[in-house]
Design a protein that fits this description.
The complex is a heterodimer of chains A (about 80) and B (about 200).
Chain A lengths: L3 H10 L7 H13 L1 H22 L13 H14 L1
Chain B lengths: L5 H4 L2 H20 L2 H17 L8 H25 L33 H5 L2 H13 L2 H12 L4 H8 L3 H24 L9
Classes of the chains: A mainly alpha (about 80), B mainly alpha (about 200).
């Protein structure tokens, strides 16, 4: 029987490679019976998807909201001026 | 600002005001490291100034800069992998999550939040928290997570880049995801009742 530790590893691996049908079945059965692992699986899949969506949204999100910090800007201007 | 481009071309402030925000965000989401992001944006803008590009402040110029930045991000990861000493840390071979007991069952089960994805996507504070969590991670898991999830590299590409086996990549990713999840649970989801699912 898969332990919760095994399942947490396989759920992550499932985001990076295709698990075998046998592994998938065993993970699915475990998740049906174990609320803690089901929550864990849902959460790491959501976080993975969120980060990918955020990266994909580059250039589409309102710019002022995501501007770089003022101190970074100041240092950038200074460095660029030094090089001129 | 003049319209002929001669004077504005030489004004770093225009470049920084117009482009530093989106470029920094691109670099930060792809590397997960704000110091690296700042350096790469600086290199990108320097490269543009050295090519005597006229400042235009438009989307096409931003796309051109983003192209330069993407190359610099790729170079950054290549340089890091070359500099890395041969051999892996113990943590790359197996990951022993302290949340499990000796029998492999939850000692500290995850709390039952679920993300309201569309809201979180636009929530600046949430992404600052994500960034803070990435910064608490050791370099290796943070970089491998950045390559796999932020840069969408395949396992094979990461193996080649870092000179490690597929199994190492999966172990490191598992460790990175587990750390990120636990950190966000503590710093975000267990704190903000509105973010919890029904």
């Amino acid at each position: 029987m898969l332990t919760c530790r095994d399942v947490s590893r396989l759920v992550s691996e499932g985001l990076d490679r295709k698990l075998s049908p046998w592994q998938r079945l065993r993970v699915r059965l475990h998740l049906l019976m174990c609320g803690a692992c089901a929550a864990y699986a849902r959460q790491i899949r959501q976080l993975d998807r969120l980060i990918r969506r955020r990266v994909a949204a580059w250039g589409r999100v309102v710019e002022e909201q995501w501007d770089c910090p003022p101190d970074v800007k100041q240092r950038l201007v200074k460095k660029l001026e030094e090089r001129e | 600002m003049t319209d002929d481009g001669t004077a504005s071309r030489l004004s770093p402030r225009d470049w920084v005001d117009a482009y530093a925000g989106p470029l920094y965000r691109l670099a930060l989401t792809r590397t997960g490291d704000r110091h690296v992001a700042e350096d790469l944006v600086q290199e990108t803008l320097l490269a543009a100034l050295e090519q005597h590009e006229r400042f235009r402040g438009d989307g096409r110029q931003l796309a051109w800069l983003a192209g330069i930045l993407r190359h610099k991000i790729a170079d950054h990861f290549r340089r890091k992998s070359r500099r890395r000493e041969v051999g892996l840390g113990d943590a790359d071979e197996t990951f022993d999550d302290p949340r499990f007991n000796a029998k492999g069952f939850w000692r500290q089960p995850p709390s039952r939040w679920s993300a309201a994805e569309d809201e979180l996507l636009e929530n600046k504070e949430f992404w600052e928290t994500v960034q803070g969590c990435l910064e608490t991670m050791p370099d290796r898991p943070r970089e491998v997570l950045a390559l796999r999830v932020m840069q969408d590299e395949s396992t094979e590409a990461i193996c080649e880049l870092l000179g490690i086996t597929p199994n190492n990549v999966w172990v490191v990713l598992h460790r990175a995801r587990s750390m990120l999840r636990a950190c966000l649970e503590t710093r975000w989801f267990d704190r903000s009742p509105s973010s919890k699912g029904a």
